[in-house]
Amino acid sequence: MSKVESLNEVIREVQEYVSKVYEDNWGKYPTSHDYLHIIRVLTLALKIADEEHLDSESILLLKLACLLHDIAIPITGCKQKHAEESAKIATQILKKYEFTEDEIRLVCSAIREHSWSKRKKPATLLSAILQDADRLDALGVIGFARMICYGEFMKRKLHHPTEVIPKTRQIDDERYTIDHVFAKLVKLPQSMNTETGKRLAKERVQKLLKLTEEFEKEVQCE
Q1: Signed CA dihedral, 13, 19, 25, 30: sign only
Q2: Span 179-192, pLDDT tens digits
Q3: CATH, range 138-222
């Protein structure tokens, strides 16, 4: 069996493990960060990797990073320090296979660096791609839906009672879900690393803003 074939077999095993972790812990974590999010991030990452000409061996490691980047969330049921905790879990998983220390470090560094809250600059192209893919899934129609799901999980009110979009009031996404668009999501395109990520983010943020505007109109019965 070639190294590529061997790695592909490992990836299949890891994906089966990840899927089972999410299935076994269903209901303990926000659906905004479920197994389908993992698959969407993986799909986006592969698209970016292709356009950014990531080498084939790194693509295999990228797949592992995508599959494991949020693994702590279904296990712990929360997002606090999830990037660091996910990297620790990923390290233990990958040590069961014949990966070099450098390969494990590449994968786990990408996992550590993907978190928005930590504002970490990616050290490698692999890490940059994972970061971009994860942030792209927070934009567009899917991003809007995920925001609603997470707001519900956190017991937040959907929107402010009188000023849906925060134009004159202070943004407060700890209380109002819709405010998260302006507290974080509109800033994501500026944080993209790759040219592909920047292009896709620009397209998706426009869809997100359009949805937010339509949401406000419906609340106001316009």
Answers
A1: positive
A2: 999 999 999 999 99
A3: 1.20.58.1910
The structural domains of the chain, with segments of one domain joined by +, span 1-125, 138-222
Q: Give the pair of three-digit tokens for residue 206.
A: 């426009």
Report DSSP letters for 54-98, one per residue. Answer: --HHHHHHHHHHHHHTTTHHHHHSS-TTHHHHHHHHHHHHHTTTT
Global pTM value: 0.94
Chain segment 21-59, per-residue pLDDT in tens: 999 999 999 999 999 999 999 999 999 999 999 999 999
What is the C-alpha end-to-end distance of the chain, expressed in Å?
A: 63
* Cβ 189 vs Cβ 202: under 8 Å: yes
- 1-125 belongs to which homologous superfamily? Hypothetical protein af1432 (1.10.3210.10)
